[in-house]
Amino acid sequence: ASKIREIHLDEQRILTGDIITTPIPEDVDDKDPNIYVSYNGSASLSITIPSASTDNPYQYAVVKPGTKFDIEKVSWTSITRSSAVRILSSRAVEGSEIYIRRSEIKAKTSPEVAYQLASTYKNYEVEYPAVPDIEVQSYTFVKGVTDSISFSIKLNKIGKIPYETGIKSIKYGTREIGFTTSSNIETPLDPSKEYIINVTLDSSVLNSLPNSNSRVLNISFERGTADKKSIRLAIQSPTPALSLTANAMQGSAPGTTAIKVTTSTRAGNELVYTITTTKVEKLNTEDIVTGGTTFVQQGDIPVTPGQYLTVYEINSGSKKVVRFKCFEITSSYIR
Predict the structure, then answer these.
(1) How far is CA 92 from the centre of its chain?
(2) What distances in angstroms separate CA 96 from CA 63, 121, 201, 297, one per listed residue?
(3) What gap in Å lies between CA 230 and CA 135, rounded to an integer?
(4) What is the pLDDT of residue 1?
(5) pTM score over 0.70
(6) What is the CA radius of gyration of the chain?
(7) Of residues 139, 144, 149, the one with CA closest to residue 282
(8) How far apart are CA 133 and CA 227, in angstroms?
(9) pLDDT tens digits, residue range 81-122?
(10) Are 276 and 311 in contact (CB under 8 A)?
C-alpha cells in the first residue's frame, strides 16, 4: 500500500522592496530589499539586487511586447549574486515586461533546508533612454583654408530624456582632437524638450595632422556611448589654382584698361575680375571669390596706376577659383 506523506508548506513569500531606476546608493548592503534597474544607453539594461545570493536566489523573466505573461510557461533566469546582471536589448526589447521574483527553494536534508515556494513577483516595463543621434555627414578639411568643421548632435527625441549630455573625447584614428561645444542642456532635464550639442573641432589640431583620405571620427560620450560611423573627415593640403592666359592693354575710353583672355572658359565656369591695392597671388582651388565683377572680353575697365586687376575663372556655383591672373596696372595699360 502506498504511504501518504504530509509536507508542511510555508506561506508564499511576498516580494518586498521596490523596482528603482535611480542610481544605487553607495552604502547599499545585502539588507536592501530593493531591485535596481539601470540602462547602458540603448544597448542593454542591468538588474542589480543587493540581497541576491546563492542562499537567497532571485529569478527574472522577459516577456516581449504582444506576448501574454504565463507564469507556468515563461522562461525564468536565476540571479544568485548581488552584482549587476546585464540583459542585452536584443533580448529585452523596448516595451518588454521584466518579471522578478525570489526563486523556489528545494528542500534538503543535509544541511536541512525547508521547501519554499517562489515568491510573488513584480514587473517593470522596459523603456530605453534616448541615445545621441548624429546625422551622417562627410567633411573635407583643407589646411590653411578651411576655417572650421562643425556639426550638431541630437541627444534625444521628444518624450524621452537624453542618456548622454556631454562629449568625453573625439579621435581621428589614434589622434585626439580638441573641440568646443555649446548646447541647450538644462537641469533638470525635461522630456518635452529636444536637446542638442553643437560641436566645433579644433582647427589648429587639424592643420597639424598628416593628409588623410576620409576616415570616421570616434566620438565618445561621458556615459560610455560611442559613435564610430556618422562623421567622416578627410584632411588635405590646398591645391594651387592654375594660371589664366591673358593680356592687358589700353581701353578704348580715357582712364580705362582692357583685358583679353585667350584661355577657353570651361563649362560651368565664368570669368570675373576684382581691383585691389595689393597683389593677388598664391590662390588655391579651395579659395572663394566674393564681390567679383562680371568680366567682358576687352571691355573698358576704369583703373588708376598702382592698382592690381585680377581676372578669375571661377565655378559658377561654388565661386571657387579655377584659374586666375593678376596684373599690376601701369600707365602703359591706361588710355
Answers:
(1) 25
(2) 6, 16, 40, 73
(3) 6
(4) 57
(5) no
(6) 36
(7) 144
(8) 9
(9) 999 999 999 999 999 999 999 999 888 766 777 889 999 999
(10) no
pLDDT of 286 above 80 = yes
d(CA 322, CA 225): 43
What is the rounded distance in angstroms from the CA atom of residue 263 to the CA atom of residue 245? Answer: 5
Closest CA to 296 of 333, 267, 259: 259
**Cell digits of residue 291:** 564681390
**Given its phi and psi angles, is residue 15 left (phi above 0), alpha (psi -120 to 50 degrees) or beta?**
beta
- Is the per-residue pLDDT at 40 higher than 60? yes
Per residue in 134-157, pLDDT (tens digit) is: 999 999 999 988 889 999 999 999
3-state secondary structure the chain: CCCCCCCCCCCCCCCCCCEECCCCCCCCCCCCCCEEEEEECCCEEEEECCCCCCCCCEEEEEECCCCCCCCCCCCCEEECCCCCEEEECCCCCCCCEEEEEECCECCEECCEECCECCCCEEEEECCCCECCECCCEEEEEECCCCCCCEEEEECCCCCCCECCCCEEEEEECCEECCEEEEECCCCCCCCCCCCEEEEEECHHHHHHCCCEEEEEEEEEECCCCEECCCEEEEEECCCECEECCEEEEECCCCCEEEEEECCCCCCCEEEEEEEECCCCCCCECCCECCCCEECCCCCCEECCCCCEEEEEEEECCCCEEEEEEEEECCHHHCC
CA distances from 90 to 69, 93, 96, 162 (A): 19, 6, 11, 21
Please state, in angstroms and rounded to a whole number, the distance separating the CA atoms of residues 20 and 23.
8
Distance between CA 335 and CA 331 in Å, rounded?
A: 8
